[in-house]
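A.,

Following up on our hallway conversation. Structure tokens first:
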């Protein structure tokens, strides 16, 4: 707990060690890259949906629904980027696509915008970061995180409190009073839409389609997103420095595309105003080779989780060994 005499380490986080002109060029927002990603992401979703239809009534439905679910849960990435206001240059495009993605994910986009702003302002602060990630105390807790044992109740609770307007004390710290009525109506419209869709699907007998193409894939693929998101901060230091509280995970082009370049997560926290399509360029522009940099770079999600699991049982406040141990195997 900070006292009035303390200097808040989160008040002024460090910036990327780049010349101002170079950083400003990377901060330039454009519509075209996001439009390409949107079209590509939705085309992949259309392909996986078609595979569900082609495999209807066979055991192949299970893997195709899982694959389709991955495309759905990874809509979290564009929602995240749009709530930053950096996916598109045009403001209404950001708000419209964020709302669409939020509806698919059952996560109110406006609420997320303010919650996520607090996460960036106070990353890994146990008291002020609403998404602070503590190190799991054991394998059971780790698996619980992977399979969303806390995520699903939290998501349902967020919708309930949004509909009723009964925000908890932590939410009141990051939801501006001036915006709470909009956040309440956002949640009510979302729940109203879901209720209307459920009723219509029963009356007009397309409820199986809703389950097969949306609800079931959305649920069974969530662990893939949990694994990716856990790698960002799990086992990182509870401090204000993005060099030590956030992990970059090098991955393949498919993951980078579906996750809208967010595997470069330390870079994102160093400079949240840099659009997703320039994060790789920011990563490459930083001084020194990756293995020489003073922040954690894991070579793939398997490596990141192997390091996390290897350090389970060290206590909730423990961290995964940083910099030299992990960065030594990193590469571009």
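Then the amino acids I'd put at each of the 332 positions:
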């Amino acid at each position: 707990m900070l006292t009035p005499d303390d200097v808040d380490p989160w008040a002024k986080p460090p910036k990327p060690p780049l010349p101002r002109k170079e950083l400003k060029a990377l901060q330039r927002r454009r519509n075209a890259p996001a439009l390409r990603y949107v079209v590509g992401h939705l085309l992949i979703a259309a392909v996986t949906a078609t595979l569900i239809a082609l495999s209807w009534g066979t055991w192949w439905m299970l893997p195709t629904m899982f694959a389709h679910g991955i495309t759905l849960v990874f809509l979290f990435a564009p929602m995240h980027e749009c709530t930053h206001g950096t996916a598109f240059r045009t403001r209404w495009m950001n708000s419209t696509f964020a709302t669409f993605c939020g509806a698919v994910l059952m996560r109110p986009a406006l609420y997320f915008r303010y919650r996520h702003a607090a996460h960036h302002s106070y990353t890994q602060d146990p008291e002020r970061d609403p998404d602070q990630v503590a190190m799991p105390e054991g394998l059971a807790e780790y698996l619980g995180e992977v399979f969303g044992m806390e995520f699903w109740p939290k998501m349902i609770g967020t919708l309930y409190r949004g509909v009723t307007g009964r925000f908890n004390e932590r939410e009141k710290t990051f939801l501006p009073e001036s915006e709470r009525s909009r956040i309440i109506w956002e949640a009510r419209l979302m729940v109203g839409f879901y209720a209307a869709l459920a009723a219509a699907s029963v009356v007009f007998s397309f409820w199986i389609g809703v389950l097969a193409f949306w609800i079931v894939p959305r649920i069974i693929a969530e662990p893939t997103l949990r694994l990716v998101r856990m790698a960002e901060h799990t086992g990182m230091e509870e401090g204000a420095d993005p060099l030590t509280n956030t992990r970059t995970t090098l991955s393949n082009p498919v993951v980078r595309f579906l996750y809208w370049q967010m595997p470069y997560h330390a870079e994102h926290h160093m400079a949240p105003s840099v659009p997703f399509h320039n994060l790789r360029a920011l990563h490459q522009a930083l001084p020194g080779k990756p293995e020489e940099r003073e922040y954690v770079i894991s070579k793939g999600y398997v490596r990141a989780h192997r390091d996390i699991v290897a350090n389970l049982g060290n206590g909730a406040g423990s961290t995964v060994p940083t910099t030299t141990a992990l960065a030594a195997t990193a590469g571009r």
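The mean pLDDT is 91. Curious whether your intuition agrees with the design.

B.
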